[in-house]
Amino acid sequence: MSDFARHLAGLIRADGPLRLDRFMGLANAHYYATRDPLGAAGDFTTAPEVSQLFGEMIGLALVDHWERSGAPSRIRLVELGPGRGTLMADLLRAARVRPAFGAAAHVTLVETSPALRARQAAALAGTERLDWAEAFETVAADAPLYLVANEFFDALPIRQFVRSHGRWHERFVGIGADGAFGFTLSPALGPAEGAGGDGIVEVNEPARAVAAAIGAWLNRTGGLALAIDYGHARSAPGDTLQAVRAHRFADPLAEPGEADLTAHVDFEALARAAGATAHGPAAQGDWLRALGIDARAAALARARPDRAETLASGLARLTDPAEMGTLFKAMALTGPGGPLPAGFGS
Ligand code: SAH
């Protein structure tokens, strides 16, 4: 057992089983604080690490919306969970087609991991008006909001409610007779009324709180928020808690703090919590194509024939339905009366 797992076991021995969201929150905080999890040598690879095209298309989508909103001279450009800072660097480079966008932007990165903050500072060296925040809710909503969150909401801790024999229980993590972590259920919370058999319902409370803050900001100042993640367009029951380590699925309880714990994003719940105008979610492949990723890849390949193969394989990985094209989805939120965001049809 790692020191961290021993620490969790000590908490359980002292106070009893940990509610799943507490367990997941503690495990992920340790996981992200102690490593750079991304890339071939890490545990998982994200879209911005697959190809520069991803961040570039997002940059162009934000610039397009900003311009059609009257090109405000001050905006907040916020990224939630920026990883290595690659997406923001690619976004800002593509946004140079309209220098006034970069000049208007105050960039805030919402990141809790000191290890990843250091990576982000290196990737964005030379960026003016750049700062960090621990939580989105602490960022001053003093200008139109332009926000991007890629694979952020899936890392936030969920609660799971289990319907069994006509009653609801909540999932906790305890320690079994064998000394290993294991799921336990709370005593019954109450009767499970209505239709539906046994099953699990997930609730991501921090995701809903962040979405509500985003929506309130957009409704006040306008702007555009883009959330890209894997998940489902409509709320649906099911256990989606998973752990990924070294590019493979792992047991979520086996080595807490050593694997990335995630759950599918419920886009319908996010949109409802935001209370702003929602567009999509669209399949990532369809959305990137509608934004013009094919033309951009072709233009870059003409300029840099030596990179044509890399660009083509990155494009395929981002858009192919058998790769990230369908499982991953993009949703946009806008304020009332704002322009329609590009990429979502009409
Ligand atoms: N967006 C990046 C990284 C995704 S990994 C990419 O696409 O490559 C998840 C990111 O969210 C990491 O940067 C992680 O440190 C951050 N993160 C996880 N939980 C967080 C929290 N509660 N608050 C802020 N950042 C968090």
Overview of the molecule:
With 346 residues, the protein is an alpha/beta fold. The chain has one domain (3-156, 206-241, 261-334): Rossmann fold. The chain contains twelve helices and 17 strands. Helix 7 links the parallel strand 3 and strand 4 (130-133). It starts with a helix and ends in a 12-residue tail after the last strand. The relative contact order is 0.16. Bound molecules: S-adenosyl-L-homocysteine. S-adenosyl-L-homocysteine binds at residues 28, 32, 38, 46, 48-49, 81-83, 87, 110-113, 116, 150-152, 155-156.
Please sum up the structure shown.
With 346 residues, the protein is an alpha/beta fold. Helix content is 37%, strand content 25%.
Essential attributes:
single chain; 346 residues; alpha/beta; Rossmann fold; eight-stranded mixed beta sheet; six-stranded antiparallel beta sheet; 12 helices; globular; binds S-adenosyl-L-homocysteine
Task: Give the helix/strand layout.
Layout: H1 3-15, E1 18-19, H2 20-33, H3 47-50, H4 52-68, E2 75-80, H5 86-94, H6 99-104, E3 105-110, H7 114-123, E4 130-133, E5 145-150, E6 159-164, E7 167-175, E8 181-185, E9 190-191, E10 199-203, H8 205-221, E11 223-232, E12 242-245, E13 248-250, E14 260-262, E15 265-266, H9 267-274, E16 277-283, H10 284-290, H11 293-303, H12 308-319, E17 328-334
Parallel strand pairs: 2-3, 2-5, 3-4, 5-11, 11-15
Antiparallel strand pairs: 1-7, 6-7, 6-10, 7-8, 7-9, 11-17, 12-13, 12-14, 16-17
The protein binds S-adenosyl-L-homocysteine.
